[in-house]
Amino acid sequence: ARDLEYAVVDVETTGLRPEGGARVCEIAVVRMRGDGTVLREFTTLVDPRIKVTGQEFHGIAQGDVVGAPRAAELVAELCALFSGAVVVGHNLDFENAFLTSEFVPAGLPDGLPGLCTLRTLRSQVHLERYSLARASHALGGDWPTGQHTALGDARACAQLLAELLHNAPGPLFYVGPEPVVLEERPQQAQLKPRRSAAGSVRLAGPRPRAVPVRELRAWPRVWRELELDPGLCTGRFDEAERAYAVARARTRARVRTALRIGAAAAGMTAAALLAAALCQPKAARSSS
């Protein structure tokens, strides 16, 4: 997994469900290597073409998106950022729903390889809470900066992924479709990054950084004894759901152990039969 490149994406939206009319009002992507080296950062406000709601969460006002590109104008940028990479998000289902509803109809390929850090963390480590901010604090000791901005959250997710791969007690393997090289397209959009009180955001340029996102911090000993099935690490992941996932992992481990013992016993039996056959007199063997 450390040999791959990743495109960590985050969106800020006017609501929670695209099927309910919510739209993207900000997007960011951090392109990185598995060792944490940032290759490129991208962020812009997006004109949702509807009233901007949810300011109490993302802080984006209606006036902020005036002059911002529309989603369809960003497809070329996203294709370049996603090309040859695994798309990553913390609760990737959320990001994917908005990518599918707004960017796929404008030409972004559907079904790109993806990795959800929320599911991965739930399957690999034991924490009380798994939100991006709480997981970052519990594992690295610091609260992420720029929370509920697309770039701030994408950076925090990239940091978590790099530290996950760095701290794992054994090799972690990406299991999924191979990254896809996407066709280059002419850039169309005039970007409009969010501005803070101190001025415009600072981005990592097109050249790789010489250092990781930040220093990769050592995590506490929170690794699960048994890896959980990521498919069971969705939803609220409450106490009952966690207990069920753990029970399934234990059952899987018992089955694997039984299969290994059975295979070993079968192998020993076959070896014993072969040895017995070889020890028979030649005449007896040839008459069989």
Automatic annotation (TrEMBL):
CDD domains reported in the protein's UniProt record: DEDDh (cd06127)
Keywords for the protein's UniProt record, in alphabetical order: Exonuclease, Hydrolase, Membrane, Nuclease, Transmembrane, Transmembrane helix
Residue ranges of the TM segments: 258-278
Pfam families given in the database record: RNase_T
Entry GO MF terms: 3'-5' exonuclease activity; nucleic acid binding
Domain Exonuclease positions: 5-170
PANTHER family referenced in this protein's UniProt entry, alphabetically: DNA POLYMERASE III SUBUNIT EPSILON, PROTEIN NEN2
Designated name of the protein: Exonuclease
UniProt organism field: Thermobifida fusca TM51
